[in-house]
Amino acid sequence: MPRKFDYRKAEDDLYNSGCRYSEEIYAYRSEESIDKFLKENGLDPEKYYEKPAGASPDKPAVPHGPDSGCYLTTACITAKGLPDDCEELTVLREYRDTYLIKREGGAKDIARYYKTAPEIVKSIDALPCSEQIWLDLYETLVRPCVERIKQGKTEEVYEKYKSITLELEQKYLRAGADASKPPVNGCTPLQAIKA
Prior knowledge:
Elements: H1 7-16, H2 31-40, H3 71-80, H4 87-98, H5 106-125, H6 130-150, H7 154-172, H8 191-194
């Protein structure tokens, strides 16, 4: 089981230490890359890991599973009943770790995803039509992106991901809104999904 990493505390400490790109911590998913980034910025990585009994320090600290706050994971697990290590999620994680992280602006996109995705998941899960939304996201985002990654169409994947992500943020992020109320028109299909 991976050790839980406190990204928010690490980002705060990076910012307070003068790191100009503290939000980039969200782009690092393996303990090795997290540790390197923190050490380069003068911080002790061990300070940010939870140490549960039996945890193995050589495994990556990546949020996985149905409670990860990742809407790609939630779409696969909830809509299709797939395991956390299914082919789709493995391909998407590999894309994130080998292509997206190296793309201009990719680290910031990853950081933004891990900041906003948990709230999007909560908003969707609160809707009576959540199962349909997860199925739509699987069929129109996850499956096509995995197919395009396999075909080497990495930029097409990025464009599709970006358009749907922006729409999800607009529709389901409730900054400043009453969190107890579902988003307005939350059960209407997303425009990017219909396209």
